[in-house]
Write a structure and sequence with these properties.
Layout: E1 3-6, H1 24-35, E2 43-45, H2 52-55, H3 61-72, H4 88-107, E3 113-116, H5 138-150, E4 155-159, H6 166-172, E5 178-185, E6 207-212, H7 218-236, E7 240-245, H8 263-280, E8 285-289, H9 295-309, H10 330-339
Parallel strand pairs: 1-2, 1-3, 3-8, 4-5, 4-7, 5-6, 7-8
Helix pairs in contact: 1-9, 4-5, 7-8, 7-10, 8-9
Length: 343
């Protein structure tokens, strides 16, 4: 089993004082991965910037113009959450390109799976707007690239960030060549992701939102992936699995509080996704980093995902399990099974 990862120090240069989406997020991941000798077993994939042509496949020229304007100004505050400094434009182009490079690596057989350790994150960025810490929608760029370049007809995007990926959903909402599956806390930022949102036009039925209440833990997340995602994919038969890997549903995360995953939960989720990739998509799976703002929880949870992709056991979790009991979501699962005809 060969796992590759994409990284560049340029991703550390996008920063703003006191902002939770900070360079220390990647530094924490790399420190744990190196301390645990994980990187010794991985193939390094060098990132290259996305071209404007690639970005325009999912973003408008207006959106690109905003990023260029921010770059000319040496940085701007796009909204209350989303910033640019003098390095952000280069980091954003490289982050989108890193997602493409990660796809290339699995599609050409260089690796079996890949993990893009890039920032800024992307899943809130819409066709026209940067928002929610996100400049370009990296996973959307990667999905459209896979469709265009490798002539794929069915790409699965799974988003397990605690926040709904409104941008990703909107970009592919009327398409059937991308199936968007999201687990997220609801109601919560950005306010989207209701179970009624199932796609439109030719994309109707190809969006499956799992809006979760607070205090949902490992066991119930496992049920979501086993009882909802797997039967949906048995029907859809994806050719590539892309993962918006946000680790802010961890119980210790300061922005995703009251959601109760831990590293064992992320390990199981990754195993479930890898099994889907192996059964339906020739094993091709790409993780693309999104959120996660407790540095220790982020580092050890991403480490658990990497271990799962390598077929290893999950033996290390110094952060520990959640300190409170989780709630049951049997009724929600039953409702979604009925809605999407998964029985």
């Amino acid at each position: 089993m060969k796992l590759g990862y994409v990284y560049s120090p340029i991703f550390l240069m996008h920063s703003a004082a006191g902002h939770p989406e900070a360079p220390q997020r990647l530094e924490a991941i790399l420190q744990v991965w190196q301390d645990m000798h994980l990187t010794d077993a991985l193939l390094t994939i060098e990132p290259t910037p996305a071209t404007e042509e690639r970005l325009r496949r999912v973003h408008s020229q207006k959106h690109l113009n905003t990023i260029e304007y921010g770059d000319r100004r040496g940085g701007i505050q796009i909204d209350g959450d989303t910033y640019m400094n003098q390095y952000s434009r280069d980091a954003a182009y490289l982050a989108a390109g890193a997602a493409i490079n990660a796809v290339d690596a699995v599609m050409t057989g260089i690796v079996d799976a890949s993990f893009s350790l890039a920032r800024p994150p992307g899943h809130h960025a819409t066709r026209d707007l940067a928002m929610g810490f996100c400049l370009f929608n990296n996973v959307a760029v990667a999905a459209q690239y896979a469709i265009d370049h490798y002539h794929l007809e069915r790409v699965l995007i799974v988003d397990f960030d605690v926040h709904h990926g409104n941008g990703t959903q909107d970009i592919f909402y009327a398409q059937s060549d991308v199936f968007y599956f999201s687990t997220h806390r609801y109601p919560f930022y950005p306010g989207s992701g209701h179970w009624r949102d199932v796609g439109a036009e030719t994309g109707r039925g190809y969006t499956l939102n799992v809006p979760l209440p607070h205090s949902v833990g490992n066991a119930q997340f496992a049920r979501v992936f086993d009882e909802l995602l797997y039967p949906a994919m048995k029907r859809y038969q994806p050719q590539l699995v892309l993962v918006s890997a946000g680790y802010d549903a961890h119980w210790a995360d300061p922005l995703g509080a009251l959601t109760l995953l831990d590293s064992a939960g992320y390990f199981y989720i990754t195993q479930a996704l890898h099994n889907i990739a192996r059964e339906f998509a020739q094993g091709r799976i790409v993780f693309i980093l999104e959120g996660g703002y407790n540095f220790d929880a982020l580092a050890w949870s991403s480490y658990a995902s990497a271990r799962a992709l390598l077929g290893k056991t999950n033996d290390d979790d110094p952060v520990g399990p959640p300190p409170r009991a989780a709630q049951d979501i049997t009724d929600l699962i039953a409702h979604l099974k009925n809605l999407h005809r998964l029985d």
